[in-house]
Amino acid sequence: MIRTQIYIPDEMYQHVMVISKTSGDNFSVIVRKSIDGYLKKTTGKKRAKKFGKGFIGAGKGKIPRDLAQNVDTYLYGGE
Q1: What whole-number distance in Å separates Cα of residue 16 and Cα of residue 41?
Q2: In a domain? residue 17
Q3: Are 17 and 27 a contacting pair, CB within 8 Å?
Q4: Most buried by CB count within 10 Å: which residue of 31, 38, 43, 63?
Q5: pTM, full prediction
């Protein structure tokens, strides 16, 4: 899970806090449920696809093993 920071209007915060006290859910649970509902409404899916799925490791075997040591050579050519 990723921790993030957002800015919301004071009125929205107060509204969520009232819901939190009446439902027993904490603030972050209500925000996650709200985001899930928004994603389902706008995309038809409950959660967004995971970023990088199928991309991570795509360059496996194609990246030179000494890239970190010779980054200037690979970026700018020469020695």
Answers
A1: 20
A2: yes
A3: yes
A4: 31
A5: 0.53
Domains contained in the chain, number: 1
3-state SS class at 1: coil
Residue 64 in tokens: 């030179």
Is residue 3 one of the residues assigned to a domain? no
The span from the CA of 64 to the CA of 17, in Å, is 53
The number of residues in the chain equals: 79
For 29, the domain range is: 10-46+55-76
Distance CA 26, CA 58 (A): 39
Residue 5 counted as domain residue: no
Q: Is 17 left (phi over 0), alpha (psi -120 to 50) or beta?
A: alpha
> Which residue type does 66 have?
D
Q: Closest Cα to residue 67, out of 53, 56, 59, 58?
A: 59
